[in-house]
Amino acid sequence: MNLITQAQLAEWLDGLAHQRTLIAPHDVAGVLLYRPVESSQGIAWGFARPVMSVKEAFFPPTEQLLTIQKSDGGIELSETFQEGEQVIFGVRPCDARGVKILDALFLDKEPVDPYYARRRANTALIGLACKAMGPTCFCTSVGGAPDEASDMDVMLYEVEGGYAIEAVTEKGKTLLQTMEHGQQTVEKPFVKRQSSIPNPQSIAWPAHFNSEYWPRMSERCLSCRACTYVCPTCRCFIIRDEVLPFTPGKPAAGAFERIRCWDSCEGENYRRIAGGHRQRAEKSERLRNRFFCKFYYYPEQYGLGQPSACTGCGRCVDICPVNVDITEVLTDLAG
Amino acid sequence: MAYEPRIIAYLCTWCSYTGADTAGIARLKSPANIRDIRVPCSGRVSPELVMRTFDQGADGVLILGCHIGECHYESGNHRAAKRLPILRALMTYAGLEPERLRLDWVSASEGERFSRVATEFVDKVRALGPVKWRVPSDEIPALTQQFAAICGDVPLAEYDCAAKTDTIRAKAKELLTSGAVGYVVGYEVGPRGRTRPSFANTPEEADKLVWNPDCTYNLTTYLGKKRRPAIKGIEQPKPVAVVVKPCDSRAINVLLTENQFPREQVYIIGVTCEGTRHDHGALQVRCQTCNDRVPIVYDTLIGEPPSAVPDHPTPVALKIAELEKETPAGRMEFWLSQFDRCIRCYACRQACPMCNCPVCLYERDDSLWIGMGVNMNEKRAFHLGRAYHLAGRCVGCNECERACPMNIPISLLNMKMAQEIEAAFGHRAGMTPVPSPVVTVLAGEYKEG
User: Fold this and answer.
1) Interface residue B57 vs chain A (CB under 8 A)
2) Could you tell me if A239 lies within 8 Å of chain B, comparing CB atoms?
3) B68 contacts B62 by C-beta, under 8 angstroms
4) Has residue B19 been placed in a domain?
5) Which residues of chain B fall short of a pLDDT of 50?
6) CA–CA separation, B377 vs B3, rounded Å?
7) ipTM of the complex
8) Touching check for A261 and chain B: CB below 8 Å?
9) Which of A33, B22, B188, B236 could make an SS bond with B111 (beta carbons 3.0 to 4.6 A apart)?
10) Domain coverage including residue B101
């Protein structure tokens, strides 16, 4: 593997930022988020794991699918597609795995989602291996690893004196053509694996469906949506047509947009149907659904080649305002 | 063409709308900028409606009603008189020029007054120029204003928690054994060492309850119907016991006045409080500004009230004062840069004991008040709307800010509203079982100006 210095990496990223949108971990008033940055100077170097995952870059919280314009005697529909290439720097292996899991739904099965597909094709992932597993990380329990490169386009490993770099895909090789580096090579560093969390495959999920465990463990859940929104693989959405607001100089009425927003199975009105019926009225049913979806429904339905639709990033563990803990659920059910 | 503002006027049908007619009949000059909306009463003009009007691009909103004492519905205009100044303070704080929102009184016979008020208002708004309230989607400015965390690092002195833990356990055990309560809501320490809310259903489970400086959660949020845990098939007709700190006990008072539950359905285990800690070990911001050491309402009190209350700086109040000195544009930029991070996860709302509407106004299926998009205008409407709905009800437990995964300084909104309510009505939420003055219509509370 080639060795590059921090300066060479920054120069390369600056070059990339000129040609396309560079998205990287950025400090936004003390909160670490993936945001478009002008140059490598905007990157929060030494970051651990941004609060939100890279899911946002492919499947944004809100996106306009199409606009609807009423005109004389007809309706005009025009699709809104994202234009321009983007490259994401600083992707952690768990997030890249998350993108693969999203692919299973949006790309690998018909019908293909054109909005997602467009973004996916326009985006390259530059990964950065973790130096060590964080206190809430458990990627090794769900089939990942802190230095897993297979889901990236380019992979970097922090080593003494810079970074070890390798291209993983053809897309990655093209990106690396503009990189200047010396001939020095370096070994891929070893990252210590540590996780005492049981593998979700060791749990007989259907047997636990009617367990009294769920009402008890969900007692303190607030039914907010933080866990699903920070999750790299939660992908429920809701689509609605909304009236576009009046803008001076444009026709006063008849303009609408169709938008797609994230939805969350933890929200109280999730999938409410005509008549106001809610399939999962109790929070225990909603929370149970989140874990079953991750560890049973999704792998089953989409034939993922991995044990779960959870990547073990630990974001939901960190973010939950009342300490609902996915690893605790795994430990309890395996025990 | 010279700039002409678009003004929306909400006119009470009984007086001001007729007043406008009178002005027309008398051939008095009134500005053509005003689009009248006829409403049954100025009290009908809810603050959400005014915010929505600005969100949709109005340059100014004029609300005219009957003079105080002449309301067709007796007290409808009291509501307007109480709510709109509070709303104006909130919107000004968020960056709107205060001159763009005006409430005044015009009777049916006062055609001349209507003409004068309308002309004055339009002239003022015209002088301000086009409104910048609505943020166009393609013009979201680079909002990068850094906001130094308002936590400060006030260390929390160690204090003895073991005795309180023992007493809480003993009390919970006693209540559960005698069958006086169905379950006890308290605190426990989870496997990761994080303190968290806990529900003890049996006397044995009472042993997991603890008290420590990390007991930051406001457990009264679990008392409302919405978040009360329900186990299918198991009815919980029995009262519930809840462990409360002084701030939490104020929340109970507010919930009681709003008839969320009868008093006898809740057994309150009050605990004296020396302050709670943040994740990183320093004193919580809310505790830095808090002087309440003993719960206001309780059935059992645990712990001795501390003799001396330490005098801390009040970082939130200082920041509010600093923001008030800013220009409207500066305040707007500050708030947009904060709301920019919001992901509409609703953790703030869900953690809040006061946010107990069955369906949140801002999460309706029909996008009536705001769209469902996670965009700047929607996010601001949600946060300002929530702040307004908490005016006179928020007890300052600040759980919303703690729950926020994006560190949005929500306390700056809620504290500002609390200051406004205290200044206008002398009301502090939850100190006594009295409802928020903005939801009542009592006569004699109206203050001119």
Assistant:
1) yes
2) no
3) no
4) yes
5) 144-148, 443-449
6) 24
7) 0.93
8) yes
9) B22
10) 7-128
